[in-house]
Amino acid sequence: MTDFPNPEQLEHDVLHALADFRGARVLEIGAGDGRMIRHYLRETALTVALDSDWDELIAARAESLKDTNARLAHGQAERLPFSESSFDLAVFGWSL
Fold first, then answer.
1. Is the pLDDT of residue 1 over 70?
2. Distance between CA atoms of residues 59 and 32, nearest Å
3. 35 backbone φψ class: left, alpha, beta (φ>0; ψ -120 to 50)
4. Among the four residues 36, 63, 68, 95, which has the most C-beta atoms within 10 Å?
């Protein structure tokens, strides 16, 4: 039987294999409860959690992103409320 890694560790490893978050301005689209942001928040210069659901953003602030400098933004991926070149990286996961 194959042992699978801890899902949290796997998520962390995949994110860091795909991008270098150090000093980056990161937009997470469809951030939901902010669970993924925890994997890279301390490395970034700026992290913005974007979601179309205010309740998810409120939950993120109360739980996953409590006591962090992450910013919350209400909006949709189809109409980003930011100017072009505002971010170095965009993360989009678990949002489909």
1. no
2. 8
3. alpha
4. 36
Which pLDDT tens digit goes with each residue over 46-77? 999 999 999 999 998 888 888 788 899 999 99
How far is it, in rounded angstroms, from Cα 63 to Cα 23?
Answer: 24
Nearest to 72 by CA among 94, 90, 93, 56: 56
Q: 46 with 21: CB under 8 angstroms?
A: no
CA–CA dist 53, 60 (Å, integer): 11
Collapsing DSSP to helix, strand or coil, 89 comes out as strand
Domains within the chain, CATH numbers bracketed: 7-92 (3.40.50.150)
